[in-house]
């Protein structure tokens, strides 16, 4: 489970897509960039079970950003 999930636009012009994301997963702080096509560029260590984490992030972003 992801804890303390946060996201904010990458650019001041909020019409340009892209978000900086951060969260805790298994007691490790993870950061990355979430792009409009759903791709994620990890800025920190890649999570162990990356595919599971990506699915959770996509679900959260759909709920919060694209709602």
UniProtKB/TrEMBL annotation:
Pfam families referenced in this protein's UniProt entry, alphabetically: DUF5342 (PF17277)
Annotated protein name in UniProt: YheE family protein
């Amino acid at each position: 489970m992801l804890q303390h999930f946060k996201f904010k636009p990458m650019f001041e012009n909020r019409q340009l897509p892209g978000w900086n994301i951060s969260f805790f997963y298994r007691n490790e702080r993870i950061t990355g960039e979430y792009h409009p096509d759903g791709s994620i560029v990890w800025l920190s260590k890649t999570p162990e079970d990356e595919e599971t984490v990506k699915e959770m992030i996509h679900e959260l972003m759909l709920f919060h950003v694209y709602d």
